[in-house]
Amino acid sequence: MKAILLGGIAALQTYFIVYLIIDLVKHREQLSITAHKREYVWGAVIGGITSGLDTIGIGSFAPHTFLMNVTRTNDDKKLPGTLNVSHCISVLIEAFIFISVVTVAPLTIFSLIISSIVGSWIGSRTISTFSERKVQLIMGIALLLTSVLMILRQQGFLDILGKGNEAMSLTGGKLIIGIVGNFVFGALMTVGVGLFAPCMAMIYLLGISPIVAYPIMMGSCAGLMPVACVEFIKADHYDRVHSFSAILGGIVGVLVAARFVTGLDVSSLTWIIILIIIYTGIVYIYKGTHRSSPREAESHI
């Protein structure tokens, strides 16, 4: 079962990588290192930092959004696509680690992953049609929602939900709830709401053992992101220079975080990032609800 699941995820990732390479080659005139030296450097740095944060359990989308704003490398209309494309490959690496070591009932993990993929496909096709102002507002709300979920997890409320859970699979009505929930979370992933925390809360509430949550979450992200990313690429809804450099930096970030960040005070770092996320969310809501020009709005960051 694991071999089939990992093979399916790898096939989706290969599909994404091939599509990405074709698109980059097709638009190679936009990828000049000389003309975009600053964007390449910041993309690699931001990708490395945020993928490292994701590896140690903090998340990547929200801090990535903040850092792009700080470094003035953001294109808000293309932000959802840029975030997904930038972290697609690094999430694959994380998924292979967790799925390889934890056994989950085939029907449960396959159905939840497939539903998240369908949700991301619909979500990515929808978000690509939105105006920049609407994307800004959605991102602001998504960031504030993310901060709330991170606070709940930081305070241990999500862990409490899973305490005493022993089930390794979902059946009947619980399986249907899980499928519908992961469909929604897959769609929300394409607008910047990370799947991990809400998916974890749902799985715990359905009685699943905490150890099973991680392969489901990682597998869902690794499966849905390639599908969503291809849709973003088709719609020209991502920043090519930033995404390409962030992918390279992200691979390094995952490997470094997995090997060398064992002594880091993750709790204190998480609280700092939560404050940053709240601030960034407020800024995006301001930009999405005020009629100032994009440059004027950016001056508030």
UniProtKB/TrEMBL annotation:
Transmembrane stretches, start-end: 6-25, 96-123, 135-152, 173-206, 212-232, 244-262, 268-286
Keywords of this entry: Cell membrane, Membrane, Transmembrane, Transmembrane helix
InterPro entries given in the database record: TM_pro_TauE-like
Pfam families: TauE
Protein name in UniProt: Probable membrane transporter protein
Organism: Vagococcus acidifermentans
Domain of life of the source: Bacteria
Main subcellular location of this protein, as a coarse class: membrane
GO cellular component: plasma membrane
Membrane topology qualifier: Multi-pass membrane protein
